TrEMBL record:
Keyword Signal: yes
Compositional bias of kind Polar residues: 19-37
Signal peptide bounds: 1-20
Protein name: Sporulation protein
Top-level lineage group: Bacteria
Record carries keyword rRNA processing: no
Keywords: Signal
PROSITE patterns assigned to the protein according to its UniProt record, in alphabetical order: PROKAR_LIPOPROTEIN
Region (Disordered): 19-41
Length: 187
């Protein structure tokens, strides 16, 4: 085990010390935003009330996807408002429903929204929540995005939200194998 750890650490050290034979960029040749303002190149998308001409094509498609997913969710009967955050190929959609509904009715509405999003090719990887707290947190994250704040400022909050929606990812679950010594249940 120690030898394996030593090999892994050595490989990490060697790969981190690679020298790249390219010229460093000149500060005079930079155009557009300065390096200090683009410290975090990964930005989440949100419907923008401001300057959309500055956004890249990727941001525009993320904005369109966000709007599209919100519209799909809001068309479901019982959904008052929907909030969405798009990050890469995954979206988190929070829905606001009437607070007087029973828990089973809220679950039915959430399931209907998930089905509607699954039918849409661009909504297949969307996570849906009807939790009031999570939905308001998604809306707050949307406000941060609208202000142009980088992902790093609220990435942990978004990770907490996804962790509450999907506590265990299916790909992380190891399949159980029945041991030959354990008796199988009879019916």
């Amino acid at each position: 085990m120690r030898m394996f750890l030593l090999v892994v650490l050595t490989m990490a050290l060697l790969s981190g010390c690679n020298h790249q034979n390219t010229a460093s960029p000149s500060p005079q040749s930079q155009q557009g935003p300065t390096a200090a303002s683009t410290g975090d190149h990964h930005r989440l998308s949100l419907r923008s009330a401001g300057n959309t001409a500055v956004r890249s094509a990727e941001d525009t498609t993320d904005l369109a996807l966000k709007d599209h997913l919100e519209n799909i969710a809001e068309k479901v009967n019982g959904v008052k408002k929907a909030h969405a955050v798009v990050l890469g190929n995954t979206a988190v959609v929070g829905i606001d429903v009437d607070g007087n509904l029973t828990r089973s009715r809220v679950g039915t509405i959430k399931y209907t929204v998930a089905e509607a999003l699954k039918k849409d090719p661009r909504g297949k990887n969307a996570l849906v929540t009807a939790d009031m707290d999570l939905s308001s947190r998604i809306a707050e994250i949307g406000q941060h995005i609208q202000k142009g704040e980088p992902v790093s400022g609220f990435a942990s909050e978004l990770a907490d939200i996804v962790g509450r929606i999907v506590p265990q990812l299916p790909r992380d679950v190891k399949s159980r194998q029945n041991s030959p010594s354990s008796p199988s249940p009879t019916r």
